[in-house]
């Protein structure tokens, strides 16, 4: 019997392999899975041989090998940690689907027509990474990994990426970490779960950082405005500490110099490949890097070198712009709009007024692991007990032979050679010592600074114009040293940050190529020589914008105004305040005079003249 020409056939719903497949809404009304027999036919022929003769044949193609190959392709590419981009397909969101379908025979096109897979192609199918030549590497499409059935359609999708430009960077968020729908309607679909380490925190509404497109445009201007020789001269001045206050700017100039030395943007052929490489470099830069190069203090330095101003003029301008008392500091009261924005931001971030409150850090509360040396009076073992807050009287070291000049050495040598056997240390305080004081948040409050953690809420401040020693309860001359420690921004890196001399890899910061680079290196390398009896009373909270978490930079003028109106609280019960002289890596030549008694009772004088 010819089923196709009978009345029976009219009661059978048969899949039509040549239906148009562009309209997903139409497809949803058609079953692509198999044929089905109507209830009328089943009831009329319960034992009919005809029913057996038209038993439907399963025609569904096996999709799992294709999906596995797509996931394998993405997993391999994502090992590089390089940025991901959406590709500019000219707003034709169906282009990839058309290409995929073109590689399938008409009878299989209907089966591949799945709304869940269509959404995946639309939202994630255009993702790609960029190689060192500016060519695109599709994130999911690699025909070499596909089986014979899917090789042709995947190859067609790959071809779409050839000669294309990227349009914007793709960030993995809580909403996109699970791309596509893994299972729906009893079937598996195109899907992928991005690695957790790729996850970006959601930025507060209204405070999003610059896009890769904006950064690429700025970077393009920087490269066009400055010759390679200009960039190398600026790098030499900063990386060799020939200009003061260089630490915060070393990362950006080192990054730019490395980009120029690689030569990819100058050697690449074709406008499309250069466009892609610019976006790759911009997306791969660390936060704030390109802004520094385009519109910050570093931008002024590059411009002045480019027009060949004399070095004294360049140095004078740099001193004014890079001065830490002015760098990133608001120059006017916050606007009402900024205050309102700060209120919304703090609410979104779960921050309160109490999180802004600062108190002086006491020696007994300094983590034991960050101490490079401590005297017997500040020994961590003495921190418990009824009278642990009391500082016992100490005898001054016996006078050494003043006619014998002190031994000159570097700070690194002082730490490695002298400190291990030191039983007592004194520091010669000048009339107006440049002091640093350490403050902290209250237990349980939220981190504010870039290096803050739940257990390290400390930061430090100093006076731009040092006050008389007596103002801080110190006397000129020899004063007992209670401890030596790194500044709070270095605590997270202990023991690497307390092992001197510091390695070049460690001090590169996040812009460096080494996995050993310390992420907070741009805040400087300072070590505090804590002095006994030191005191201070600040009428501001010392919440400096340059240290704040990046989410807070947009409202820094409001935070600075709050800081200026609220002082630092004293800890109830008292105790030894943490503060003293700082030894800086970028300090150049220095003159720190120490007197040390070793474990044999021998007293020696040492003059620290360089860091390392």
Structure description:
- The protein is an alpha+beta fold and 612 residues long.
- It folds into 4 domains: 3-53, no CATH class; 64-198, no CATH class; 212-322, no CATH class; 358-381 and 410-610, no CATH class.
- Helices cover 32% and strands 15% of the residues.
- The strands form 5 sheets. Strands 11, 12, 13, 14, 15, 16, 17, 18, 19, 20 and 21 form an 11-stranded mixed beta sheet that branches. It has a 4-stranded antiparallel beta sheet with strand order 5-4-3-6, with helices on one face. It has a two-stranded antiparallel ribbon with strand order 1-2.
- Helix 10 crosses helix 15.
- The longest helix has 16 residues, at 247-262.
- Mean pLDDT is 83; it is low at 1-59.
Brief overview:
This protein has 612 residues and is an alpha+beta fold.
Report low-confidence residues grouped into runs of 5 or more. 1-59
Which structural category do the helix and sheet elements fall into?
alpha+beta
Name the helicity range.
25-40%
Mean of pLDDT: 83
Report the span from N to C terminus: 98 Å
**Mass-distribution shape:** elongated
